[in-house]
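step=encode ok
step=design start
structure_in=
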């Protein structure tokens, strides 16, 4: 989770990722930032995020993003 938080803070240091629950739904993460996030997650965690997984439910909070990464690492 620490590595994910570093990635998120690099993308936009002004967001409170610890408590935010609607990063995509509220427009906190722009489409450009989301693309950047997907790329950085792929590089940092060695996972490939399928296009079908790039949905608000998987990116609305740091916990949701980490849960998605965990599922990908486990081979879902």
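sequence_out=
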């Amino acid at each position: 989770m620490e590595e994910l938080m570093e990635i998120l803070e690099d993308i936009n240091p002004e967001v409170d990722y610890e408590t935010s629950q609607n990063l995509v739904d509220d427009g906190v993460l722009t489409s450009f930032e989301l693309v950047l996030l997907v790329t950085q997650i792929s590089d940092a965690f060695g996972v490939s995020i399928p296009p079908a997984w790039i949905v608000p439910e998987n990116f609305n909070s740091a916990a949701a993003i980490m849960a998605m990464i965990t599922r990908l690492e486990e081979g879902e």
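step=design ok
step=annotate ok -> The chain is about 55% helix and 0% strand.
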